[in-house]
What we know:
The protein is α/β, with parallel strands linked by helices and 292 residues long. It is built from ten helices and ten strands. It has helices spanning 50-53, 63-66, 72-93, 109-116, 128-138, 168-177, 195-200, 218-226, 241-253, 259-280, and strands at 15-16, 32-35, 42-45, 99-103, 120-124, 153-159, 179-190, 214-215, 231-237, 285-291. The strands form two sheets. A six-stranded mixed beta sheet has the order 5-4-6-7-10-9, with helices on both faces. Strands 1-2-3-8 form a four-stranded antiparallel beta sheet, with no helix packed on it. α4 links the parallel β4 (99-103) and β5 (120-124). α3 crosses α4 and α9 (241-253) crosses α10. The longest helix is centred in the N-terminal third of the chain and has 22 residues, at 72-93. The two termini are 34 Å apart.
Amino acid sequence: xxxxxxxxxxxxxxxxxxxxxxxxxxxxxxxxxxxxxxxxxxxxxxxxxxxxxxxxxxxxxxxxxxxxxxxxxxxxxxxxxxxxxxxxxxxxxxxxxxxxxxxxxxxxxxxxxxxxxxxxxxxxxxxxxxxxxxxxxxxxxxxxxxxxxxxxxxxxxxxxxxxxxxxxxxxxxxxxxxxxxxxxxxxxxxxxxxxxxxxxxxxxxxxxxxxxxxxxxxxxxxxxxxxxxxxxxxxxxxxxxxxxxxxxxxxxxxxxxxxxxxxxxxxxxxxxxxxxxxxxxxxxxxxxxxxx
Length: 292
């Protein structure tokens, strides 16, 4: 395990918070969240080092690596994903990419829809099982590491991936270096300042410790991008995330309740979160579009 004492974005000292989320997916271990008071980044503490990380992903419930509809929640996720993939394609098409790389591509669902749209695609996926599935679907090589990328990319996407990267600065150094001179970087991350995060506190499912090393506010994301001379072009809400995250949070917070009651409560909290976000801009997840 590793301890982080300084903020990787602004180098300030990190301070304790009262939040102690649990790994509900694999280990049942408790972790702490520590905060940068300056840029409002939250950091999982301690963080597994890279040699330990794989065991925290060993779950059939980790759907982006398996496409497994083995639970009602996962079935809902897969149903909604078909819609959100089309929305993501519509978003990236604004930038007329010839070459697009998806970092943390999982089983290749997003790359598949881009490939069918005539975009030249490149995928990166460190998980062996997910990478094999993606290669089978896409019928091309998927790279193990971003360091393997050789070609400059017009668009690079990270859909709920940045928060997983233990070496934040090292990885972003490489990613920004692979962008073409006027390239676009699209990053989707959970937003711990959303109403659903404030409602569920340590039970908020999108903390997903210790797989999520970093927990971003809008301020921390913008400050991080500016340190790479990237301009913020747009911040786009992910409306469905508040529902999925709230449903999962209800499962963690109220395991004794019936599935039906948890579903109703989670759907209600997801709606409330989105309604509040219409005033504050603090949606459960946000897509940041940065221009080089």
